[in-house]
Amino acid sequence: MNKSGFIMLNRNIVDWEWYTDVNANAVFIHCLLKVNYSSKRWQGILIKKGEFITSYEKLAIETGLTISKVRTALSKLQLSNDIHVETTSSFTKISIINLKEYVAKSNREQTDPLNDTPFSKHSGKTLANASQSNDNHLATTKSNNIINRKKIFREKVFAHTQFSKELLNDFFNYWSETDRDKKLMKHENQDFFEIDKRLVKWKKNEKPKFGKTITSGTASNR
Question: CA-to-CA distance for 151 and 166, rounded, in angstroms?
């Protein structure tokens, strides 16, 4: 399981019917943290986004509850249509019914080759604005203001020390320009943006300064 990224609890979760049920609440949040955020295969089985393979025994160990309490909690969550449980002779598969209501999309999810059918809209509690990112895939979280995001972007750009500082600065200044509403940077409007690949292309397209070229060992103006 990819443990990068995070989930954020919306304050209206206190109105959820299982919020005061300590066991059901704990099991549900644990499931949110365990589910796949991109499709992958496990022992020849396609495990889709929003699903994960487990067992009652494993859930009991991970949550500190008894197997009986785990079963009861899962039954309640399934009754309220928060999860779906599929049990076979060899494993248990749990699905979050409305994953879209709990996490936000990231660039990594948008490029998932095994795209899943969208989940239905749910009017209950939400765990919104999750963001998964790594050095090359940049995901914007709504909780971050533009100043913080610029700072993070600059750190990621200047981490590529194989390029000159002048080139990195030009690259950063160009891709950190904001839109008219000052809400998004230029790179955030791109469907795909991998810093290292963009830097390589930027260097190849870089023009000589002051309009000078080098020919036959001498410098001349264009």
Answer: 17
**Phi and psi (nearest 5°) for 18?**
-105, 10
**What one-letter code names the amino acid at 217?**
G
Contact 40, 116 (CB under 8 A): no
d(CA 62, CA 20): 20
What are 172's two structure tokens?
Answer: 């950063």
- The C-alpha atoms of residue 155 and residue 144 are separated, in whole angstroms, by 15
Task: Give residue 210's pLDDT.
Answer: 45
Q: CA–CA separation, 67 vs 41, rounded Å?
A: 27
How many residues are given for the chain? Answer: 222
Please give the backbone phi and psi of residue 81, each rounded to the nearest 5 degrees, phi first: 65, 30
**113 - beta bridge partners?**
none
Residue 145, SS3 per DSSP: coil
pTM for the full predicted model: 0.47
Amino acid found at 220: S
* Element housing 47 (H / E): strand 45-47
Distance CA 102, CA 8 (A): 8
pLDDT in tens, 35-91: 887 788 888 788 888 899 999 999 999 999 999 999 999 999 999 999 999 988 888
